[in-house]
Amino acid sequence: GGDTRFMAMLVGVLLLGCSLVHAAALMGRAIVPQRVPVGASMKLADDGILGVGVIGAGRIGLVHLEALSSCDNAKAVIISNPTVSKAEAAAEKYKLPSFSGDAMDVINHPDVEAVWICSPSSFHADQIKACAAAGKHIFCEKPIATDLPETIEAINACEQAGVKLMTALQRRFDPNFQRVKQAIVKGEVGDVVTLKLCSRDPAPPPFEYVKGGGGIFKDMAVHDLDMARYLMGSEPIEILALGSCQIDEEIKVLPGPEAYDTANILMKFANGKCATIDVCRQAPYGYDQRAEVLGKEAMIMTDNTYPNTARIFSSTFTGNADMPYDFFMSRYKEAYVQETLAFVEALVNDEPSPCTGIDGLIALVMAIAAGKSAEEGRWVKMSELAPDLCTLEVAITGPLSPEECEAKVVGSDGTLDFGAVSSFFKRITTRV
């Protein structure tokens, strides 16, 4: 029906538009990382081991190196970072043969078949396109890009090059959320009535991180927006969001959603169900990640996870002896491993990416719609993003007026009309 056309349009964007290695070292001999160029390429071994290069030796890059170290059929062979000493330290810790200060050394390394992009968000789109041009598969931390045109262009580059792209939305691979999804799919809760998600950080990030970071919806709530869609198994059609500054007065001077540290979101889906989300940059009791799904037959929910199960019972307190896991790196440690294993298996067995570029694109569209709703104080339909998508037409015929855009892509019921938009996007994305 018309309510699902937005998803179909986004899938159309991608579908219509966009050596095995092993690091040979003698048994017992320590690997000494070398700065690229290293001269002769590493000798390839026909043992089913995937050669991986990592861009970015910051916090998340090290998380992914740790996850890769748990994978039997993949091996990181090189890492890059602008501060080359960080790349060198990471290479030494995880026994990588090579390191560099230049991301292109990773992308062009002869023994790299897949690249893990863990750089700052502003570099993602260009690095994805460079990987695609080099014929390398891509695992990219969210977001693919911070705006729609760049996101579509990057997805399209991968499709045209025939390489796989995975958007790293790690919560999909968390055992707790996986069990909730399983209960829905298997019918353990019956027909879903509603779901709600809670995401609260232990402390607000620094001002410089928030400034230019895209705001609370793109930077933080995007995970919850994606999880709501993933659990619901239906496409969002309308969003209402409220944003406010309750914690950090300093960020009030920033524009748009960057000035929010607290937000509440209500979403309507094509299947007629609703979801609610609350996010906050600070919870005094620690990192808070919960989900609850109410069905006609039962309810399933997740609670916060703790480093241990010890509980204290006294006359003044009863509860967990310690705080929940302190932040996402420890809370989602297993999820990072599982998403790594899932993508490596997809590459080794030539299967579809378990979390596609389109999934990342839809999450971005949802975050943009939420920001628009919070700024304008009203419900925002997904189809209202059509004018933003229509700006790509400039690559062919020049700018479109709102009326021209509506005539091209919006149906009479206000939803995006895939029948009208498919050829439109095919022309645009193949020529951007």
Automatic annotation (TrEMBL):
SUPFAM superfamilies: Glyceraldehyde-3-phosphate dehydrogenase-like, C-terminal domain (SSF55347), NAD(P)-binding Rossmann-fold domains (SSF51735). GO terms for biological process: NADPH regeneration. GO terms for molecular function: nucleotide binding; oxidoreductase activity. NCBIfam families: myo_inos_iolG (TIGR04380). It comes from the Eukaryota. The keyword Methyltransferase does not apply. This is Inositol 2-dehydrogenase. Residues 1-23 form the signal peptide. Keywords: Oxidoreductase, Signal. One of its GO terms (cellular component) is cytoplasm.
